[in-house]
Structures are given as structure tokens and as C-alpha cells.
UniProtKB/TrEMBL annotation:
GO CC terms in record: plasma membrane
InterPro entries (alphabetical): Cell/Rod_1, Cell/Rod_MreC_2, cNMP-bd_dom, MreC, MreC_beta-barrel_core
Domain Cyclic nucleotide-binding: 197-275
The protein's name in its UniProt record: Cell shape-determining protein MreC
Organism: Streptococcus zalophi
Cytoplasm listed as a keyword: no
Keywords on record: Cell shape, Membrane, Transmembrane, Transmembrane helix
Claim: Secreted is one of the keywords in the record: no
Amino acid sequence: MKKFRLSKLIIIFIAFFLLSGSLIFLISKNKSLRKNISFFVDDGVTIVKEMVDVPIYFVNKTFSNISELFNTYRENDNLREQILEFETKDREYQMLLEENRELRSELEIKESFSGLNVLTGRVILRSPVAWLDNVTIDIGERDGVLDHMFLVSEGGLAGKVEKVNTSTTDITLITNLSSTDGIPVKIKTNKDDVYGILTDYNEKDNLLVISQLNTRGVISSGDEVFTSGLDGQSPSDISVGKVKIIDDKEALNIKIYVVPTVDFSHLSYVSLIGE
């Protein structure tokens, strides 16, 4: 049985060898056949190569796109960080500019009121609930603060001393005055000064209200208003604002509406001025 199998294998091998040799001989003698077979082989190789290359190209392209996407994300993150850093530095720069401007303004106040007691401080407490009522500043009795001193910001009247503590002072803003604690003022007209009392504030229109005038005078829109010091305790000639509206409908109760010099939305570095 084993001899039969061996003989069969030998016969198959010899037949395969003869067939292969005959095929090679025919191909070598027949240029046309050799050329066709070469084309066939080349086409087959090309097809196989394309079948292999296309998936590889797709995979490479996909990974390349993913890599570019991650690079884009990283670049965007870096750009966001740079923009955030720039915005932070810009805010800090603007704050420093504002602080410098305020300090220069307070220095000018000291020069303008050189004959008076001028102290410079900073607002350290201002409640959002009572934004236009009161503030607390970081100087007090030990710094020389006295009653009847006026709070000045950027050259304009902002408030008056309410309570002096050892190291701080509570201030009533002029947007929170009443008829009992009004501030004597004067309106500079083309003729004589007109005197009155600053007693109220119109929050809706952001206008200070002056009443109790000593005379109607010839008050015009744009006339400047200053403190008068007629109470004998407070300093005079501090800017309050400019006349905007004259309400003389009631002859015995004329009211003058004034645009304040001070921007009450922002109080930071301030001065106290007193005799």
C-alpha cells in the first residue's frame, strides 16, 4: 500500500515537472504569449497592490486627520490661554491707569486747597444694598480726621463725615442727604451768587436737588455750583456740579436740579477736606 502511494507521488511530481518545463519552454519561444503573460502578471500585481494600498492610505489619512484635529485643539487651547492672559494683563493695566489718574487727581486737590486740612484715603467698604447711601474709608481719628470734613473725589463733592472712628471714617454721600443735614451751596451766575441748600437727590435722572434759595436771581442752565461754607464749619469752593433744570413752578419753593461733578458709580481713592 505504501509503495503504491509512493509511486503515485513520483508520477505526479514527474508530470508536474514535465508540464512546468513544457510551459516554460513554450513561453520562452513565444514572445506574444510571454508578453501577454507578463501583462497579466503585472495587472494582477497592480490590482493586488491597489487592494493593499487603498486600505493603508485610508488608515494613514484617517490617522493624519485625527492628528491634525488634536493639533488644532491644542492650538485653540493655547490661543485661548494667550487671549485670557492678555485680557487679564489688559484689565490690570487699565486698573493701574485708573488708580494713577485718581491719585494724580487727589494730589491736585491737595495743591488746590493748600490752605486747608487735606487727607487722602481709600474706600474700603461700600454695600451694594446702600450703594448711594454710605461708604467707609481707611483713615480715621488717628490720621487727623475731624467732624464736618467733606469727602471729595476727582475734584468734586461726594459726601460728608458722618462718624469718625479710630482708623476708619463713615461717610454719608450727598446722594443720601435730607433737609436736616443739607449742605450749604452757592450757584455762580453771570451776576451775583445765589445761595441755597443741597438737600435731595433724584436717582432716576442722577440729579442733585438744591432748594431754600435766598433769591431767584438769574440762574441759567450750565451755571456752576460750589459749596459755600456758610454754616461756618465746612470748607467752601468745592465743586458740586452744574445746573441743568430750574423748576420755578412754585415761587416759594424753587428747585434747582444739578448734574453732579462726581461719578458715584466709582469711588476709590478720595480726599477729606476741612478747616
